[in-house]
Amino acid sequence: MAVEKVMVIGAGQMGAGIAQVFAQSGFQVKLNDIAEENLQKGLATIEKHLSRNVEKGRMDEADKTNTLNNLETTTSLNDANDCDLVIEAVVENMDVKTKVFQQLDQITPKHAILASNTSSLPITDIAAVTERPEQVIGMHFMNPVPVMKLVEVIRAIQTTDETYQTIAETAEKLNKTAVEVNDYPGFVSNRVLMPMINEAVYTVFEGVAEPEAIDEVMKLGMNHPMGPLRLADFIGLDTCLSIMEILHEGFGDSKYRPCPLLRKYVNAGWLGKKSGRGFYVYE
Ligand code: CAA
Ligand code: NAD
């Protein structure tokens, strides 16, 4: 199936990035959010990154104009009625996501593929609330989307080969590398990454070292581009906590218990970079 028209749902840090890479690659993109204000913020972020690309000689003014012309914004899900592919990137909450998928199932054409950018929620369960479970799949982009090469493609138990193939080919058109994984809690990316971040939070909690020292150890000692605590702030501490809860519940293994300090920060509203404070303070 040829994908031409795409809707991205949620104009937060992931949705805006996903909409940008699709529009840059020539797809017709509708960016949707419940809040007009978030759509405007998302659009402003995209424009800033495109201008940076022009400044750096990675694209010219015409590419920037074409990209922006490929993009429209909407607060109505009904505008997905002519889309071939929808990528959902709303908050990491199962109730919110299943409601969105049930509505999309009614609105979108029968051939449309419904994908989720969820970090850890079960794609099989999301697929099961629709009448087209074979056309539901995980299309997990990494943050920051315009920079990171990976798309982790998660097959629900119901996903067909044809759906997988269309998504893998679409990822290639975005100049990304698709890696196929099966649907288990945290998939591969967050099953491996998030326990490391959680362990870094435990090292703060237990007074082993200050956040700066922990990050320095991992940057200089392991060549990570960012230390785990700065990365946690960058991802969002609420998202990190949700992922640890999914791992803990999904495997029933105490090795995945979220650190109490992580929960305390989230309860305090210290969500990382997006709220101005997490393990670090942001101006
Ligand atoms: N959007 C678009 N471009 C961005 C960006 C953003 N949010 N942040 C940085 N960039 C670009 C910059 O434009 C810059 O290029 P130019 O200077 O040429 O314009 C380039 O990336 C490098 O940026 P910086 O020099 O500011 O900083 P850096 O060298 O530290 O790189 C980074 C930034 C790419 C984010 C790097 O620190 C990095 O790779 N960090 C780790 C990211 C990571 O692990 N991501 C996965 C998170 S987990 C996930 O996504 C899954 C999940 O479900 C939670
Ligand atoms: P975010 O909080 O930055 O953005 C979420 C956006 O969704 C907000 O603008 C919100 O208004 C909107 N929204 C909420 N409910 C909606 C609805 N019913 N319809 C339309 N829009 C709605 O979150 P984010 O960090 O962009 O994460 C989005 C998804 O991507 C989550 O599932 C998250 O787990 C996943 N993810 C996050 C990262 C990361 O590093 N932050 C990486 C990969 C995947």
Describe this structure in words.
By secondary structure, the chain is of the alpha/beta class. It has 2 domains: 5-182, Rossmann fold (3-Layer(aba) Sandwich); 191-274, N-(1-d-carboxylethyl)-l-norvaline Dehydrogenase, domain 2, CATH 1.10.1040.10. The chain is built from 11 helices and 8 strands. It has helices spanning 13-24, 36-55, 61-69, 94-107, 123-128, 161-173, 189-205, 211-222, 228-235, 237-251, 260-267, and strands at 5-9, 28-32, 71-74, 85-88, 113-116, 136-141, 150-155, 177-182. The chain has an 8-stranded mixed beta sheet with strand order 3-2-1-4-5-6-7-8, sandwiched between helices. Strand 7, helix 6 and strand 8 form a beta-alpha-beta unit. Helix 1 (13-24) crosses helix 2 (36-55) and helix 7 (189-205) packs across helix 10. It is globular and about 55 Å long. The model has no long low-confidence stretch (mean pLDDT 97). The structure holds acetoacetyl-coenzyme A and nicotinamide-adenine-dinucleotide. Acetoacetyl-coenzyme A binds at residues 49, 52, 56, 119, 142-144, 146-148, 189-190, 193, 225-226, 231, 235, 239.
